[in-house]
Amino acid sequence: MSKDNNKIYFSNSPFTNGHKVIDFVWSARLDENFNLWMDFHLETDKYDEEEEYKDALDEIDDISEENAERALWINYDHCIISSTYWNNKGIKIETDAKLDFNDLNQKTFEIDPIPVDFDHEEELAFGISMLGNDTVAQHEITFLDSEEFGVFDIKWKGKVANTYLGENEFNYDFYVYMKNIKFSGIKIDQTLEKEKVLAFFQSKITHFSDFELIETDDLELEDYILKIRKQED
Length: 233
Description:
eight-stranded antiparallel β-barrel; about 230 residues; 3 helices; about 35% strand; mainly beta
């Protein structure tokens, strides 16, 4: 079966049509030690949003294993995979050489290979809620360039262990292909001084003139975010 873009698919799931991704954020953050981390946040629609239903009486009478599995997934509502939602580590970005968006094209990040330490899941790059708060690892995240600066297609696959229900084997695979995802910016740790932050990025980012440091509003946790400048037509 062919797979649609902007949907996530799980193996061993009763929902073979996948699930629409309703929120996908690609960002980064600069921590208090001037370490740079890349983050992703993915959230789906309700698991059963796109499914066709039988008559209600048929559903009540259907005690098949498939229907029980569907009911289990529906009970957990939807999926989140994120490095920010539960304050996971994200992906460490090395800054020894200058950073250039052009270098991301065709680049694959391989993160948290199996086996992992289930006793220290806070050290994993991402958290997941699939069938409860489970464990996600062995990520392959690939960037494919578009014609617009800072915009990429992102192909992401990985493995999930249903640890919330007591499993410790990575029996689920997931796959998602997101089209035209724009980098949302780099969040700056509040303890860092603006002048030092600007000096850091000027020395580390190629085409720094394409970015601007923006002061956030009172609702944000950060004082500043480094964002791509709006392109003039």
